[in-house]
Task: structure prediction
Amino acid sequence: MKKYFAIITLLLGVLAAPAHAQMIRFGVQGGLNVSQVHFNTDLWGSDNVTGFHFGPMLDFRLPLGIGADAAVLYTRRGINGSHDGAFREIHTDYLDVPVNLKWRIGLPIVKPYLAAGPYLSFRVAGDKWWDAGFIPDQLKAKSFGAGLNFGAGAEVFNHLLVGFRYSLGLTSNYSELKDGKMSDIGKDRGWVVTAGWLF
Result:
């Protein structure tokens, strides 16, 4: 865990370093996730799982409506999966670190924005195996993941943030034990609805 927190601190430090060149604000955000794991095998099926996220954030602006934000979010995702007619829901908790570039339209009260950028995920809970007696194959959550976010939203009265984003997982988040060997399967995909407050 120490190396994960070191990476997170470094990412936030990179954003905060040029503080004299732009306005930086701190805030909090939280909301709902609707996620689904896309498996690269036809042996597994997966339905949507509703989770949540919350945590501190950092927002800064440059001229011409350009800016960025970063956050450290406690996030719950998971699998509502089926295999050979058997069903099981597994929740996995992560520390997500999204870093987004933003473009704002500078209207007086409501400032719409577009955002996109990478995220890193560090598993903190939910390293669950499927019960050996439940199905013949086993599934395990991996400790690290990464992907891209694409989103839009609005800043209201310079403090309230509301928005949504689509998260596209680029790495496999699960490993399957089959015939004595581990293989990578399953990438997270999902929609996130979020709200935040900037101080």
Q: What stands out?
A: The chain has a mean pLDDT of 83. Helices lie at 2-16. The radius of gyration is 19 Å. The longest helix spans residues 2-16.
